[in-house]
Amino acid sequence: MSDCSDHDPNWVPYKERPEWNDVTPIPENDGPNPVVVIAHSEKFEDVYGYFRSVLQRNEKSKRALHLTKDAVELNPANYTVWQYRRDILKTLNTNLQSEFAYVESVIKQSPKNYQVWHHRRVLVEWLQDASLELELTKDALEQDPKNYHAWQHRQWVIKTFGLYSQEMEFVDILITEDVRNNSAWNQRYFVLNNHLGWSDLNVQKEICYTLEKIKFVKNNESAWNYLRGILLHDKRGLCGNAVVSSFCEDLYKNKCRSPYLLAFIIDMCDEAIKKDETNCLYNPERAIELCEALASKYDKIRTKYWNYLLERFRKCRGEQIINSNGLMDEIE
Amino acid sequence: MSFTTKDVVLKEDRPKSLLLQKHSDYLASYGLNKDDYEYCMTEYLRMSGIYWSLTAMELMDQSSRMPKEEIIEFIKSCQDSESGGISASINHDPHMLYTLSAVQVLAMYDRLDAIDVEGVVRFVASMQQEDGSFYGDKWGEVDTRFSFCAVMCLSLLHRMEDINVNKAVDFVLSCMNFDGGFGSKPGSESHAGLIYCCVGTLSICKRMDALHADELAWWLCERQLPSGGLNGRPEKLPDLCYSWWVMSSLSMLNRIHWVDKKSLEQFILACQDAETGGFSDRPGDITDPFHTLFGLAGLSLLGNTSIKAVNPTYCMPQETIDKLKLEPQILHI
Question: What Gene3D superfamilies has UniProt attached to this entry (chain A) (predicted)?
Fold first, then answer.
């Protein structure tokens, strides 16, 4: 965001510009009794005084277009300025290619601004031209790999214009750079879900990919969440996949006590109980033991959560015992 | 393992008690300071600024320090007679965000009669799209934030029947992700702020049953870091505003007790500025009304009795919600 103070030595206030002497600036109107008195810098006051006036006259001219640029520079989050700029662009039938370059420069300065990304999207829609968007968002994500606006824009162009072909490679680069980049994992899911599809082969490929990444950094919430996400598309579920369960058991045997691993094994137990397929690995006792370990040692900050699960598992262990004694009917 | 976590360290000399008087003074003088650089930058969101300040003042039982009649006049002059929507400031364009802020402020003042209610209803209803989603303004940006704005606004006006509630719910549910969370649009990454918007929408529409409550609540609890603070997405720094977005969502899910309340309270208190008053995003940063509201509201949810009870769905005093006879849904555990 640019400074309101007047640093630019070449800056000529609008009130001193001859080509603007037919316009009377309008000061900010705060209503009859101003709730708040607003003191702007001189430059801000000058530019917005003329902007208000142009808006009131509904003047759609080249000079008004230029004025919106100055107004944006002072505050790129002012959505009214952007709306008016679009109105002018439409009316003047301006060459929108140069507008692309301009928006790109504003995005570079204010990459987390809603309005400027939205302006970009409207331009792409108007021109039906998305040829620059993957590069633009790639640049923004290089600066901040978790920029929500850039990801939203990228997903929109990919979906709207069918630009999926290179996306898995792009995601892979980001995950390789930072294996904990949750946005990149989310994008991986997006490509699978909207483009590649959940064929058995794809699911297995993704499982192998994810397990490799977990092997590399075990305490990685994003990768473990993604693993759960892809297993939603595996008919065998969480614990029916031998590759996944032997991977988890190996980690456990090798003394890994990442809360995410333990939580995953708990979920496997939970699924086995729900499917009535408990076995020596996945059963209420083991779930209880792991909940206790998490609550008292490995994830103390979430003790209450683990205790809640613990109680749930105790209950179903109780029910199991009752069941195996054949007492269920009588109890009911 | 823990050395890679992005977090902050709370200093020993941090504020440890709640400085209510300071916050009240801070908000009372905010915006009166003519040399305030921030101020000229915030014209475009003034309506929300008033909502943040007034709600914070209400929660501290200090709202008499705000210029009520002037605020109401200001809101009246921000309503666009054509579309019916309300803008951030006079002569700005109407937008869902500011329409909601204005309605919230007037609801707290019990002065909803001050505006053209039919106009507001017309504006909000006109923003709904075929798929149930909502635009923010005439330029067509779609976001789950606007779904929440729409249902909150219309429920405060008792006019939910003017939109297609089922479709609104369907759209929000289409934004549910594989981790149980929600993003801004279908496929967008889960984000605690947007989860609050989506859970809030379901709470108002009484469709909390559609959530994967345990899974979502666990994801929300995972946002708590060793400092006690909460982040909005994995591997991001803690920020005070997430105390509100995560905690209010957990309250609606009836699982607020799953976070470590004591360390979160310490984190929130550490975000106070003992000199200027107000709260900031992280300890030591510059304070603002936005974080001040969410700091106070977060403490209220944690059970601090020197602050009035806040409603987790509406982020308004519970007494206002009771007076309007609204009963946003809270999940039974």
Answer: Protein prenylyltransferase
